[in-house]
Specification:
single chain, 259 residues, Glutaredoxin, 5 helices
Length: 259
């Protein structure tokens, strides 16, 4: 029996909790510890992810180009015949014999805006040394917007209107900026998606230019390949080729007759 203050009377047995009661009480406390532990791990994970994202944003370039796959690689470039913004007619065949970069772009495309100064630098550098050519194709944009976007650069290189999207469809383009590198024989050798730099385009052209030059270099077969790899040594008193006579075989090779 206990008093009103909750203390036990002398000689009275104090009830002790059984093992099941203790396990039940402990189990009710464990979930709270697990919740606190899970919350701590989640907070640490979010913090680490935030640091990684910050590092990537600071280390990664603002725009990067990606060499993309295309069913046109290794095949003849689809023909292009269109009207330039200068109202002149243009045909891709007139540039045969040079490397050509076909650039699909738009004025509303942010990477296109960033790379435009690089493309102009590329055009001027190649014009001085008679190198590669650049051809711009408007992708899902109006001529008015493109004129305002390019300004005087319209006169630097051919810029073609593609109001029906025929050229873009023939090259399989679904977004700008997309570029195709065509070799001097008119074959598509590379596709690049994303913004580029003048030096990046030059490196790409030099790479395929070196490959093209190597493929055209005639392979010289070493002369030793045509010489006999085994010298015949006739048995004394016999001749491996009796019809040639005794004086026309020496060590398996034909020798001039001695009178």
């Amino acid at each position: 029996m206990t008093t009103s203050s909750g203390t036990s009377l002398p000689g009275e047995k104090v009830p002790v909790a059984s093992n099941e009661e203790r396990e039940t009480a402990t189990a009710s406390v464990r979930p709270a510890h697990r919740r606190r532990r899970t919350s701590l791990f989640a907070a640490v994970g979010v913090g680490v992810l935030g640091v990684v994202l910050v590092v990537v944003l600071f280390v990664s370039p603002p725009s990067a180009n990606i060499a993309a796959k295309s069913p046109l690689l290794g095949k003849a470039a689809p023909p292009i015949t269109a009207t330039r913004l200068s109202s002149k007619r243009f045909s891709l065949t007139t540039l045969r014999g040079h490397f050509v970069v076909i650039d699909f772009f738009a004025s509303w495309c942010t990477p296109c805006v960033k790379e435009q100064p690089e493309l102009e630098t590329f055009v001027m550098e190649n014009r001085r040394r008679g190198g590669a050519d650049l051809v711009g194709v408007i992708f899902s944009d109006s001529v008015v917007n493109v004129r305002g976007f390019l300004g005087p650069a319209i006169s630097l290189y051919p810029v073609l209107a593609d109001p029906t999207g025929t050229i873009a469809i023939s090259y399989g383009v679904d977004k700008p900026p997309s570029k195709f590198l065509i070799d001097p024989s008119g074959r598509v050798v590379a596709k690049v998606v994303g913004a580029v730099t003048a030096s990046g385009l030059e490196a790409l052209i030099n790479r395929y230019g070196a490959t093209l030059a190597e493929s055209k270099t005639p392979k010289i077969v070493p002369r030793e390949r045509f010489l006999p790899t085994r010298v015949l040594s006739p048995v004394p008193g016999s001749h491996p080729f009796p019809a040639l006579g005794p004086n026309r075989m020496r060590s398996g090779l034909i020798a001039p007759r001695i009178a």
